[in-house]
Amino acid sequence: MNMKWIFQIAYCDAAEPWQLGFQDAATPIMQGIIDLHHDIMFFLVIILIFVLWMLVRVLWHFHYKKNPIPERIVHGTTIEIIWTIIPSIILMVIALPSFTLLYSMDEVVDPAITIKAIGHQWYWSYEGRPFFSYQVKEMQLRSVIDYSLYYSDYNTSDEQSLAFDSYMIAEDDLELGQLRLLEVDNRVVVPVNTHLRFIITSADVLHSWAVPSLGVKCDAVPGRLNQTAIYIKREGVYYGQCSEICGTNHAFMPIVIEAVSLDDYVSWVSNKLD
Ligand code: CUA
């Protein structure tokens, strides 16, 4: 019997009013970012308490009423070695997981799908090469390693391509349950558990393509292609916003990614092409 529904929890994949913490992770990278944050926060709290304790102690014991004649000590070799070595050890302990995360974010594993996101004043447009149902059948027969040979990279002239604009839904046009300033008319639909590559650029000024739950914030620079890898682990709708001041409607060019099963993705693509 499938008891999965008992443990079903609601994820937060959009910003909440007065939110201070992170949104729920949907990619291993975002999970890594949250873990690193908690890791560093541990050291941060210890250092904060220790420094505060020392300051209060110094103010208390060396107040001029309590200690009118000051000591003549100017240095002590042992204490100086200790307060140099310990912080540098702490820094190394922080640096190791930090660099590990940094380099794993740079890694683009053989992507199955490449999507190009282009920033405009003030909307996003997307271009991608779809793959078709017969290719999915074929893909299921092949190992993960070589399917990228068949379904990666850019359009060749004889293939159909998928291109659409994605505009924010104006406040007056919102339907019940839709999120203000976050909903778009055309969502980017992608399959879960698939290595995706996003190529990000701009047609006019600087924009930034950012989706918190996916752990992505990538600048869209005119004349330049930035790339980022995404691997979404669960189905859901992920909301993001342009994150580089790009003009008067900067706040009104959100990003919506809808992660679905591979079968749903294939039917979405075929609908889109008709
Ligand atoms: Cu586009 Cu801010």
UniProtKB/TrEMBL annotation:
How the cofactor is bound: the record states: Binds a copper A center.
The Cytochrome oxidase subunit II transmembrane region profile domain, residue ranges: 14-109
Q: Among its keywords, does the record have Cytoplasm?
A: no
| A GO molecular function held by the record | oxidoreductase activity
The cross-references to CDD domains, in alphabetical order and at most eight, read: CcO_II_C
Q: Which residues cross the membrane?
A: 40-60, 81-103
Highest taxon of source? Eukaryota
Catalysed reactions, semicolon-separated: 4 Fe(II)-[cytochrome c] + O2 + 8 H(+)(in) = 4 Fe(III)-[cytochrome c] + 2 H2O + 4 H(+)(out)
Q: Which Gene3D superfamilies match?
A: 1.10.287.90, Cupredoxins - blue copper proteins
Q: Describe its function.
A: Component of the cytochrome c oxidase, the last enzyme in the mitochondrial electron transport chain which drives oxidative phosphorylation. The respiratory chain contains 3 multisubunit complexes succinate dehydrogenase (complex II, CII), ubiquinol-cytochrome c oxidoreductase (cytochrome b-c1 complex, complex III, CIII) and cytochrome c oxidase (complex IV, CIV), that cooperate to transfer electrons derived from NADH and succinate to molecular oxygen, creating an electrochemical gradient over the inner membrane that drives transmembrane transport and the ATP synthase.
UniProt family annotation? Belongs to the cytochrome c oxidase subunit 2 family.
Q: What is this protein called?
A: Cytochrome c oxidase subunit 2
Its source organism is Gonatozygon brebissonii
Name of the encoding gene: cox2
